[in-house]
Amino acid sequence: MKIAPSILSCDFGRLAEEVEAICKAGADLVHVDVMDGHFVPNLTMGPMIVKAVANASSIPLDIHLMVENVPFFVDMYASLKPEFISFHVEEEKHINRVIEQIRSYGIKPAVVLNPATPVSFLEYIVADVDMVLLMSVNPGFGGQKFIPSVIEKIKELRELGSKKNPNLLIEVDGGVNDKNAKMLKEAGADILVAGSFVFGSKDYKKAIDSLRG
Ligand code: DX5
Ligand code: ZN
Questions:
Q1: Total domain count, the chain
Q2: Residues spanned by the domain of 129
Q3: Residues with catalytic annotation?
Q4: Ligand 1 pocket: which of 22, 136, 137 to mutate (most atoms within 8 A of CB)
Protein backbone atom coordinates (compact mmCIF):
# COMPACT_ATOMS: atom_id res chain seq x y z
CA MET A 1 0.00 0.00 0.00
CA LYS A 2 1.40 3.40 -1.00
CA ILE A 3 0.54 6.59 0.82
CA ALA A 4 0.20 9.99 -0.82
CA PRO A 5 -0.32 12.80 1.71
CA SER A 6 -2.30 15.70 0.25
CA ILE A 7 -0.46 18.96 0.89
CA LEU A 8 -3.81 20.77 0.72
CA SER A 9 -4.02 20.29 4.49
CA CYS A 10 -0.46 21.37 5.30
CA ASP A 11 0.64 24.65 6.90
CA PHE A 12 1.22 26.75 3.76
CA GLY A 13 3.30 29.25 5.71
CA ARG A 14 5.86 26.48 6.11
CA LEU A 15 5.29 24.74 2.77
CA ALA A 16 8.81 23.51 2.04
CA GLU A 17 9.29 22.25 5.60
CA GLU A 18 5.97 20.39 5.48
CA VAL A 19 6.88 18.71 2.18
CA GLU A 20 10.27 17.70 3.57
CA ALA A 21 8.60 16.35 6.71
CA ILE A 22 6.28 13.97 4.83
CA CYS A 23 9.16 12.80 2.64
CA LYS A 24 11.14 12.04 5.78
CA ALA A 25 8.13 10.33 7.34
CA GLY A 26 8.10 7.75 4.54
CA ALA A 27 5.41 9.05 2.16
CA ASP A 28 5.52 7.53 -1.32
CA LEU A 29 4.07 10.43 -3.33
CA VAL A 30 3.11 14.05 -2.67
CA HIS A 31 -0.53 14.52 -3.69
CA VAL A 32 -1.08 18.00 -5.14
CA ASP A 33 -4.68 19.26 -5.45
CA VAL A 34 -5.01 21.83 -8.22
CA MET A 35 -8.43 23.56 -8.16
CA ASP A 36 -9.57 26.34 -10.47
CA GLY A 37 -12.71 27.75 -8.83
CA HIS A 38 -14.79 26.51 -11.80
CA PHE A 39 -14.82 22.71 -11.81
CA VAL A 40 -14.91 22.84 -8.01
CA PRO A 41 -15.99 25.69 -5.71
CA ASN A 42 -12.49 26.32 -4.37
CA LEU A 43 -9.15 27.69 -5.54
CA THR A 44 -5.86 26.21 -4.40
CA MET A 45 -2.47 26.54 -5.98
CA GLY A 46 -0.96 27.55 -9.28
CA PRO A 47 2.29 26.69 -11.04
CA MET A 48 4.61 28.74 -8.80
CA ILE A 49 3.46 27.01 -5.63
CA VAL A 50 3.47 23.57 -7.23
CA LYS A 51 7.02 24.25 -8.42
CA ALA A 52 8.01 25.10 -4.84
CA VAL A 53 6.50 21.78 -3.73
CA ALA A 54 8.45 19.93 -6.44
CA ASN A 55 11.69 21.65 -5.41
CA ALA A 56 11.22 20.69 -1.76
CA SER A 57 10.25 17.10 -2.49
CA SER A 58 12.53 14.07 -2.71
CA ILE A 59 9.60 11.86 -3.81
CA PRO A 60 7.47 12.06 -6.98
CA LEU A 61 4.41 14.28 -7.29
CA ASP A 62 0.88 13.04 -7.91
CA ILE A 63 -0.99 15.96 -9.49
CA HIS A 64 -4.79 15.83 -9.18
CA LEU A 65 -6.41 18.33 -11.54
CA MET A 66 -9.86 19.58 -10.50
CA VAL A 67 -10.16 22.06 -13.32
CA GLU A 68 -11.91 23.01 -16.53
CA ASN A 69 -9.77 23.18 -19.68
CA VAL A 70 -7.68 20.17 -18.69
CA PRO A 71 -5.18 20.24 -21.63
CA PHE A 72 -4.07 23.76 -20.68
CA PHE A 73 -3.20 22.59 -17.15
CA VAL A 74 -1.48 19.43 -18.39
CA ASP A 75 0.91 21.59 -20.44
CA MET A 76 1.41 23.87 -17.43
CA TYR A 77 2.51 21.11 -15.03
CA ALA A 78 4.27 18.68 -17.39
CA SER A 79 7.67 20.35 -16.99
CA LEU A 80 7.67 19.42 -13.28
CA LYS A 81 7.75 15.75 -14.37
CA PRO A 82 5.23 14.41 -11.86
CA GLU A 83 4.74 10.64 -11.62
CA PHE A 84 0.99 10.98 -12.35
CA ILE A 85 -1.36 13.62 -13.71
CA SER A 86 -5.00 12.78 -13.06
CA PHE A 87 -8.08 14.54 -14.44
CA HIS A 88 -11.83 14.14 -13.99
CA VAL A 89 -13.86 12.28 -16.60
CA GLU A 90 -16.86 14.45 -15.68
CA GLU A 91 -15.09 17.45 -17.19
CA GLU A 92 -13.15 16.30 -20.24
CA LYS A 93 -14.93 15.58 -23.52
CA HIS A 94 -11.91 14.10 -25.31
CA ILE A 95 -10.54 11.72 -22.73
CA ASN A 96 -8.33 9.62 -25.02
CA ARG A 97 -6.72 12.73 -26.45
CA VAL A 98 -5.77 14.02 -22.99
CA ILE A 99 -4.45 10.60 -21.95
CA GLU A 100 -2.17 10.72 -25.01
CA GLN A 101 -1.16 14.31 -24.23
CA ILE A 102 -0.06 13.29 -20.71
CA ARG A 103 1.77 10.22 -22.01
CA SER A 104 3.58 12.27 -24.65
CA TYR A 105 5.43 14.00 -21.77
CA GLY A 106 6.50 10.65 -20.30
CA ILE A 107 4.03 11.08 -17.40
CA LYS A 108 1.60 8.38 -16.27
CA PRO A 109 -2.02 9.34 -17.03
CA ALA A 110 -4.84 8.73 -14.55
CA VAL A 111 -8.56 9.45 -14.66
CA VAL A 112 -10.70 10.43 -11.68
CA LEU A 113 -14.30 9.51 -10.88
CA ASN A 114 -16.47 11.58 -8.56
CA PRO A 115 -18.47 9.55 -6.02
CA ALA A 116 -21.60 9.58 -8.22
CA THR A 117 -19.86 8.58 -11.46
CA PRO A 118 -20.18 4.84 -12.15
CA VAL A 119 -17.22 2.54 -12.77
CA SER A 120 -18.93 1.44 -16.02
CA PHE A 121 -17.96 4.83 -17.47
CA LEU A 122 -14.40 3.46 -17.68
CA GLU A 123 -15.11 0.41 -19.79
CA TYR A 124 -13.42 1.77 -22.92
CA ILE A 125 -10.75 3.87 -21.18
CA VAL A 126 -9.42 1.69 -18.41
CA ALA A 127 -6.93 -0.12 -20.65
CA ASP A 128 -5.29 3.19 -21.60
CA VAL A 129 -4.48 4.61 -18.17
CA ASP A 130 -1.93 3.68 -15.50
CA MET A 131 -4.23 4.56 -12.62
CA VAL A 132 -7.81 5.36 -11.70
CA LEU A 133 -8.48 7.69 -8.79
CA LEU A 134 -11.78 7.06 -7.04
CA MET A 135 -13.06 10.03 -5.04
CA SER A 136 -14.54 9.14 -1.67
CA VAL A 137 -15.74 12.73 -1.12
CA ASN A 138 -17.05 15.33 -3.55
CA PRO A 139 -13.91 17.19 -4.60
CA GLY A 140 -13.19 20.73 -3.49
CA PHE A 141 -12.11 20.63 0.14
CA GLY A 142 -10.01 18.69 2.61
CA GLY A 143 -11.47 17.36 5.82
CA GLN A 144 -14.78 16.02 4.46
CA LYS A 145 -16.56 12.86 5.51
CA PHE A 146 -15.71 9.57 3.79
CA ILE A 147 -18.47 8.22 1.47
CA PRO A 148 -18.49 4.43 2.03
CA SER A 149 -19.97 3.46 -1.38
CA VAL A 150 -16.41 3.79 -2.74
CA ILE A 151 -15.67 0.33 -1.28
CA GLU A 152 -18.09 -1.26 -3.75
CA LYS A 153 -16.59 0.81 -6.55
CA ILE A 154 -13.04 -0.37 -5.77
CA LYS A 155 -14.18 -3.99 -6.01
CA GLU A 156 -16.03 -3.34 -9.25
CA LEU A 157 -13.01 -1.53 -10.70
CA ARG A 158 -10.65 -4.38 -9.68
CA GLU A 159 -12.94 -6.73 -11.57
CA LEU A 160 -12.93 -4.52 -14.67
CA GLY A 161 -9.15 -4.07 -14.34
CA SER A 162 -8.53 -7.80 -14.16
CA LYS A 163 -10.18 -8.16 -17.58
CA LYS A 164 -8.91 -5.06 -19.32
CA ASN A 165 -5.81 -3.76 -17.49
CA PRO A 166 -4.17 -6.13 -15.00
CA ASN A 167 -1.51 -3.53 -14.09
CA LEU A 168 -4.07 -0.87 -13.21
CA LEU A 169 -3.42 1.05 -10.00
CA ILE A 170 -6.39 2.15 -7.90
CA GLU A 171 -6.06 5.27 -5.77
CA VAL A 172 -8.64 6.51 -3.27
CA ASP A 173 -8.95 10.14 -2.18
CA GLY A 174 -11.12 11.82 0.45
CA GLY A 175 -11.79 11.24 4.13
CA VAL A 176 -9.17 8.50 4.37
CA ASN A 177 -8.04 7.74 7.92
CA ASP A 178 -6.82 4.89 10.14
CA LYS A 179 -10.42 3.66 10.57
CA ASN A 180 -11.17 3.00 6.90
CA ALA A 181 -7.65 2.29 5.50
CA LYS A 182 -7.82 -1.44 6.16
CA MET A 183 -11.20 -1.74 4.43
CA LEU A 184 -9.84 0.15 1.41
CA LYS A 185 -6.81 -2.09 1.25
CA GLU A 186 -8.90 -5.25 1.45
CA ALA A 187 -11.23 -3.97 -1.27
CA GLY A 188 -8.20 -3.59 -3.59
CA ALA A 189 -6.83 -0.04 -3.28
CA ASP A 190 -3.12 0.44 -4.10
CA ILE A 191 -2.60 4.08 -3.14
CA LEU A 192 -4.33 6.07 -0.40
CA VAL A 193 -4.44 9.86 -0.40
CA ALA A 194 -4.79 11.46 3.02
CA GLY A 195 -4.75 15.16 3.80
CA SER A 196 -6.26 16.15 7.12
CA PHE A 197 -5.50 12.79 8.73
CA VAL A 198 -1.75 13.08 8.12
CA PHE A 199 -1.28 16.82 8.57
CA GLY A 200 -3.69 16.92 11.51
CA SER A 201 -1.58 14.44 13.42
CA LYS A 202 1.40 15.27 15.62
CA ASP A 203 3.56 12.46 14.28
CA TYR A 204 3.46 12.22 10.47
CA LYS A 205 5.39 8.95 10.36
CA LYS A 206 3.04 7.28 12.79
CA ALA A 207 0.02 8.52 10.81
CA ILE A 208 1.46 7.30 7.49
CA ASP A 209 2.41 3.91 8.98
CA SER A 210 -1.07 3.48 10.45
CA LEU A 211 -2.59 3.89 6.96
CA ARG A 212 -0.22 1.41 5.38
CA GLY A 213 -1.50 -1.29 7.73
C1 DX5 B 1 -10.45 16.89 -2.21
C2 DX5 B 1 -9.01 16.60 -2.57
C3 DX5 B 1 -8.35 15.70 -1.61
C4 DX5 B 1 -8.23 16.26 -0.22
C5 DX5 B 1 -8.22 15.13 0.75
O6 DX5 B 1 -11.02 17.62 -3.21
O7 DX5 B 1 -8.92 15.99 -3.83
O8 DX5 B 1 -7.08 15.28 -2.07
O9 DX5 B 1 -7.10 17.04 -0.03
O10 DX5 B 1 -8.28 15.63 2.04
P11 DX5 B 1 -8.80 14.73 3.24
O12 DX5 B 1 -7.88 13.55 3.35
O13 DX5 B 1 -8.72 15.66 4.42
O14 DX5 B 1 -10.21 14.32 2.90
ZN1 ZN C 1 -6.97 15.03 -4.39
A1: 1
A2: 2-212
A3: 33, 173
A4: 137
